[in-house]
Design brief:
Elements lengths: L2 H27 L12 E4 L13 H16 L3 E2 L6 E23 L5 E19 L7 E12 L4 H26 L2
Parallel strand pairs: 1-2, 1-3
Antiparallel strand pairs: 3-4, 4-5
Helix pairs in contact: 2-3
């Protein structure tokens, strides 16, 4: 066997072992979960009442359930009602649907005329109070807002089921990342 090939065959297992040792060391130094939660074990997430002028009747319950599920399913936190390490509460302060644009897309009517399609925008704003009893310097009061643009031909029911769900998920993602990832 050629001595050059023989040296390479011997060096490869050494490199693999060195790589594994380095990865083990890095794993012990850094948590790859990305979570900033260390001492926190319990969380209380209160219902988010809908105090917006325009009220989606299912939004409060759905938002509250979705944010609770996010924290309880994607973290090791346990839900509690007594003396939690973390408290998350707030309110839905705005729920509005506004016209935004008239698109360049046109439709021909049965009488031969043309109608330009228009779009609406759903905006949801949520005020959040986050209290961390283990690390009080991480506590905050913030307002989160997001929106979705959609064709104006959607019914109120379609808006409430699809668009409100989409916007709520985005807001919950922002809240979750601010609390858990602490970015």
């Amino acid at each position: 066997m050629n001595s050059k090939i023989k040296n390479n065959v011997i060096k490869q297992p050494k490199l693999i072992w060195l790589l594994l040792i380095c990865l083990s060391f890095l794993n012990s130094c850094y948590s790859f979960t990305g979570s900033s939660l260390k001492d926190e074990k319990t969380v209380q997430i209160n219902e988010f009442p809908n105090n917006a002028a325009l009220v989606n009747p299912t939004l409060s319950q759905q938002f509250s359930t979705d944010i609770q599920n996010r924290f309880l399913q994607r973290t090791t936190l346990k839900g509690t009602k007594e003396n939690p390490d973390m408290l998350i509460e707030g309110e839905i302060s705005d729920y509005s649907i506004t016209p935004t644009t008239i698109s360049s897309t046109t439709q021909t009517t049965s009488s031969g005329g043309t109608i330009q399609e228009s779009q609406n925008k759903l905006t949801i704003t949520v005020k959040v109070h986050y209290e961390n009893k283990k690390n009080p310097d991480l506590s905050f009061d913030r307002t989160y807002s997001d929106e979705a643009v959609f064709n104006s031909n959607l019914s109120q029911s379609e808006i409430e089921t699809s668009q409100a769900k989409l916007v709520s998920e985005r807001i919950i993602n922002k809240i979750f990342n601010d609390i858990v990832a602490n970015w």
